[in-house]
Amino acid sequence: MQEQTIRDAISFSGIGLHSGAAVKMRMLPAPAGSGINFRRIDLDAYEIEAIGRNVARVSYATSLMKRGVLISTTEHVLSALIGAGIDNAVIELDQLELPILDGSAKPFLDAIYRVGIKRQRRQRQYWRIKKPIELRDGQKFLGIYPAEQYSISYTIDFPSPIGLQSFELDLTGDAYQQNIAPARTFGFLRDERQLRNMGLIRGASEENAIVLTDTGVKNGPLRFADEFVRHKILDLIGDFALLGHRILGKVIANRAGHAMHTALVAKLLKDRSLCEEVTVDREESREPANATISPPVLHANR
Predict the structure, then answer these.
(1) CB 232, CB 157: distance < 8 Å
(2) Global pTM value
């Protein structure tokens, strides 16, 4: 499989979920081998690579920082790029936080498909998981295991009206586009004042988040009955994009979150005995979701 970028520039505008600040954003094609890079055009076009070593804060969103320059709430656009099979792109911003749009990855993904995807000459590199890796923190758990393709099984357990939800999928064909990209971020109305006092969710509204009361969804209908766990998978895919390559492995998560996602990314990047860089012969990006997938032919890079 070869690397890919977008065919043309894409413009977005909106507000930051946490900052509430108006932001303009452009997604630009990038050369093969350059990866995903954020560019603060309000700060002399300073660039920050979308890689685990630049992770700064991971409480209610994943933020990157390099030499004091911050990029906040990166997970949705990174998730969309992985879902679309984009390896190389530049994300330009005139503010510190990405626009939240409708709270999902769908607007980003739809825009990518509208302009089209360009195949590049360089072979795509993957991280193939060689050994099981597990993180635990009380009832929270995140593990990744050797497998021939990227798959995720995620379980959450929130107070009512969410409760216990689980979802799993193989990240092949249009599975991301159909099952994950439309899932929106969410929050409880009872937490609003506390979070705003912490300087968070200043841009949140019923147009960009699912708002939950003690009895149900305030601004329904839901896009999926289990939209909440699907959004957690969306976040995980975005956070795992900070590995720099797509993975070949099976992910199992239980009540995990941004902090645990990025901790596993850091562990993988620090200990290269846990995975190896490989190329894959078979095409994967546009296989139908119900296709029979042949095992990939892997080539380790020495």
Answers:
(1) no
(2) 0.93
Verify that 117 and 142 share a domain, yes or no.
Answer: no
- Nearest by Cα to 162 from 257, 259, 227: 227
Residue 91 bridge partners (DSSP): 27, 38
Strand ranges (E), the chain: 2-6, 10-15, 22-29, 36-40, 46-49, 55-57, 63-66, 69-71, 89-93, 117-123, 126-129, 133-137, 140-146, 151-158, 163-170, 186-188, 210-212, 246-254, 275-280, 298-300
Q: Where in the sequence numbering do the catalytic residues fall?
A: 258
- What would the pLDDT profile of 41-71 be if each residue is shown by its tens digit? 999 999 999 999 999 977 789 999 999 999 9
Domain that includes residue 154, residue range: 126-300
Read off the CATH number of the domain in which 228 is found.
Answer: 3.30.1700.10
pLDDT in tens, 210-240: 999 999 999 999 999 999 999 999 999 999 9
Tokens 């969103």 identify what position?
61
List Cβ neighbours of 161 (8 Å cut-off, separation of 6 or more).
212, 213, 214, 215, 216, 217
